[in-house]
Design a protein that fits this description.
transmembrane helix, 219 residues, alpha+beta, extended, DUF2975 domain-containing protein, DUF2975
Length: 219
């Protein structure tokens, strides 16, 4: 590899580090906002403060009957359709305090998992920049990123299910059936598969790093 290719590689890594550092700053801002929401929720008579903090984005599951929708095909035929197991996001003021607190705490937990994933990624990139990529430490970091990804999946799904179950008792909208659980939301296993695949890569990476260390010691 010539010097020009090396310089280009270093610049690419610097750009990636900058991007992840910027993401880390945004994550910290999100943590602060979630913490402020908890504080405002706990204040007995928050008054004007409640208007400053935007309401949380609650996930809701719902279904629509067939009569509300018609699909028209290219040949001119029309058939009714139904929307089942749909997912939406609502913003509403004066939600139950217990629900807001649960949502805020779970949001903080999910955000922390994302934050640690970004931190581990930055450390891996910095080691690559130093031309010391094949390390056991990096394999452990990859493993943690995979485990954190699994944790993010479950915390997000649990939060959505609990908030939807609670809100379905209060929400009213013509011809809309709000449900407490949506099994379709749990069938989205792409993130789980990606995390499991990363676990396999991390283990192979760890074995390769250990072999390299043993060879270095032998030499």
């Amino acid at each position: 590899m010539n010097q020009q290719d090396q310089d280009h590689g270093v610049q690419s890594i610097d750009i990636l580090i900058f991007i992840f550092q910027a993401m880390k700053i945004l994550i910290w801002i999100s943590l602060v906002m979630s913490s402020v929401l908890i504080i405002v929720t706990l204040i007995p008579n928050e008054g004007a403060l409640k208007n400053i903090v935007p309401p949380p984005n609650f996930v809701v599951y719902f279904s629509l009957p067939e009569e509300l929708g018609i699909v028209q095909w290219g040949d001119g035929n029309t058939t009714p359709f139904s929307i089942v197991s749909a997912l939406g996001v609502i913003k509403t003021s004066f939600a139950p305090k217990g629900l807001v607190l649960f949502y805020s705490f779970m949001t903080i937990l999910t955000t922390l998992l994302i934050l640690f994933s970004i931190i581990f990624t930055i450390r891996i990139l910095k080691s690559v920049k130093k031309k010391a990529f094949l390390l056991v430490e990096n394999a452990v970091r990859l493993r943690w990123i995979a485990l954190l990804g699994i944790g993010i999946y479950f915390t997000d799904r649990i939060t959505s299910t609990v908030t939807s179950s609670q809100l379905s008792k209060y929400l009213q909208f013509p011809e809309v059936d709000f449900t407490g659980i949506n099994f379709f939301a749990f069938l989205n296993f792409e993130s789980i598969f990606g995390s499991m695949f990363l676990l396999v890569i991390a283990e192979v990476f760890r074995m390769g790093a250990q072999l390299k260390e043993e060879n270095d010691l032998t030499i």
